[in-house]
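Example 3.2
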Amino acid sequence: MNVQLDSHAKTENEPIDYFLQDVLNGLQSTPKKLSSKYFYDKIGDHLFQQIMAMPKYYLTRCELDIFKNKTDELADLLIPENEPFDLIELGAGDAMKSTYLLEYLVKKGADFTYMPIDISGNILSILDKKVNSQFPALEVTCLEGDYFEMLQKAASLSNRRKVVLFLGSNIGNMSLEEAESFCLHLNKNLSSKDRVLVGFDLKKNPHIILDAYNDKEGITAAFNLNLLTRINNELEGNFDLEQFQHYQTYDPVSGACRSFLISLKNQKVTVGSVSISFEEHELINMEISQKFSAEQISALGEKSGFAITGEIKDSKKWFVDSIWQVQ
């Protein structure tokens, strides 16, 4: 969930055009859907910070436990021996967790450049100020845009060994098929011996998982509904947020935790010049948060052309950071 400020070349209207195209394609699909990558405008960033601070939203604390208390183990598994490298973080957000690794590496005198990638320029600007304040001597290159486009940009900037962080169970925001495609693509954008850390939320008691996404305070609901507000503000939409309700599910067999917005009546919504019809009780598929078994993680890495070289779990064994190497 992160961004860099060395943005790829684009016309002024290009981001809006892609946003509009994706929204219209999704709302005219059956079933209707919206991409969770558009959750993160300024308000969405703030709401997600609130979600991460909720007592029952365990994911952030579990991975933070790893980065804060097992930093030396992480570094031993990730960092090339006595080689300069680029530390690339996909969806870096505010770098709350990775800051512990940055601090460890800086103190150890490691020769590296930090390259956070994020789709949100707002959160990247926050990260850039934070990291430069805390580590003024560290070279930071922020890259704002699509993961793979920015990975190619990073490769063009340096031929050093790459160490990629993909934290927060962001891999879980894809279906299993999408995750496999993503990892294959990731492998193709890296070179032999490059390393990747992927954070996976593990299957566990279903009540623990559902409680993390179905908060009584309504913050997750507001996070989902904010995407409709963003469509209204940026794409000339006219969604009435009072006529949509958040709904959360978790299937412990498949491991899929899904969020939806339900239309509360028959209604028509316009986005720009396009009219979209909703039936009462019709759903918009908003987001998946996939949970994984150890077997699924191993299979995903191997199918994608990686060798799994290690793993580190949090103290509760609810979350795992799996370390892979390009063969």
